[in-house]
């Protein structure tokens, strides 16, 4: 049985991946910071051991300890936020962290496959191009967010490492949604909560945005499949159905038999609110849900095909409606949203 290490194991996607690997009987070692919330990690057992190594992707020595004797590395650790007061942190974690991981893989010499979780943002917007695939290269004429800019820089480093013989497979999820932690990495759940609470009373913009939505458990299965089926040096978008947030809100209303929003909030209004949120964040230290960079991303399209993953990884993403229904029921059971009791989904 392969020994597996997961960076970013305490995050939204990382926690779901660790639980799936645990259910399948894999021996998993997780690299987490001493301050990380480990409540979503599975318990260790004799049939599926879970070993915890405290460290950080910016701490090279901790990576050497974590990767020792492991044959597969899932590198999920990343800083995923709409905005940070110090944008250099995106690069120290998302770029510097990847560089450290690559060097640690080379030095430990036992790693047979490194599965790197990138982002569809690294491939760039698809404005006026229709639906793109893994062959798209970011135009780099502009970046909507510092996160996007850091993932583009990291993508170049990962591809260069692949050409130098590092056994790496690159995965590109879309907007990840579904049950799990309601964090910045689960923005759809956060926006649905805002919508049902009345704090977000209308549509965001006029529906010209288009994103590729990836259910978290589909992305997890794509990662596990990449462990055995992913071809070294290859890029795989593990995306899903392409839709606008307007369509997401409409679909959520139909599923829950609740009213749809009756008006659209112009993006300039949301951007103004974003600036206020950033000002409030600087005062309180609490990161905003909406920021001007988020609005910039909403002005573009990010539509991707996962056909390559379907063919080579047997990736089978669920429909957006099915995934939303599951997430809405989960949010209801947590008491975060309400809808008619007779709707059981």
TrEMBL record:
Pfam assignment, any one: Epimerase
GO molecular function: aldehyde dehydrogenase (NAD+) activity
Domain NAD-dependent epimerase/dehydratase stretches: 4-234
Record-given protein name: NAD-dependent epimerase/dehydratase domain-containing protein
Organism: Crotalaria pallida (Smooth rattlebox)
Gene Ontology CC annotation, any one: cytoplasm
PANTHER family: NAD(P)-BINDING DOMAIN-CONTAINING PROTEIN-RELATED (PTHR48079:SF6), PROTEIN YEEZ (PTHR48079)
Highest taxon above the source species: Eukaryota
CDD domains linked to this entry: AR_FR_like_1_SDR_e
């Amino acid at each position: 049985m392969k020994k597996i290490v997961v960076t970013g194991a305490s995050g939204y996607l990382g926690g779901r991946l660790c639980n799936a690997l645990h259910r399948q009987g894999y021996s998993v070692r997780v690299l987490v910071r001493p301050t990380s919330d480990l409540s979503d990690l599975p318990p260790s057992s004799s049939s599926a051991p879970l070993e915890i190594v405290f460290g950080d992707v910016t701490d090279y020595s901790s990576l050497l300890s974590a990767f020792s004797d492991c044959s597969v590395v899932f590198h999920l650790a990343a800083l995923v936020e709409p905005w940070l007061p110090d944008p250099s942190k995106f690069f120290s974690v998302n770029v510097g962290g990847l560089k450290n991981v690559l060097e640690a893989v080379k030095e430990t010499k036992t790693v047979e496959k490194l599965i790197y979780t990138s982002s569809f943002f690294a491939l760039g917007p698809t404005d006026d191009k229709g639906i793109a695939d893994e062959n798209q290269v970011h135009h780099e004429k502009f970046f909507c967010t510092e996160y996007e800019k850091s993932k583009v820089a990291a993508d170049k480093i990962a591809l260069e490492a692949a050409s130098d013989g590092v056994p790496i497979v690159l995965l590109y999820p879309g907007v990840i949604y579904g049950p799990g932690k309601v964090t910045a990495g689960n923005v759809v759940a956060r926006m649905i909560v805002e919508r049902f609470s009345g704090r977000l009373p209308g549509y965001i913009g006029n529906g010209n945005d288009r994103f590729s939505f990836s259910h978290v458990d589909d992305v997890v299965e794509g990662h596990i499949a990449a462990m055995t089926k992913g071809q070294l040096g290859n890029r795989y978008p593990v995306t899903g159905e392409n839709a606008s947030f307007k369509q997401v809100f409409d679909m959520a209303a139909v599923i829950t038999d609740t009213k749809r929003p009756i008006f659209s909030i112009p993006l300039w209004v949301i951007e103004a609110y974003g600036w206020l949120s950033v000002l409030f964040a600087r005062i309180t230290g609490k990161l905003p849900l909406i920021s001007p960079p988020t609005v910039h991303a909403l002005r573009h399209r990010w539509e991707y095909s996962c056909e390559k993953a379907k063919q080579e990884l047997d990736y089978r993403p669920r429909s957006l409606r099915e995934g939303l229904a599951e997430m809405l029921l989960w949010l209801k059971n947590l008491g975060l949203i309400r809808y008619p009791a007779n709707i059981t989904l």
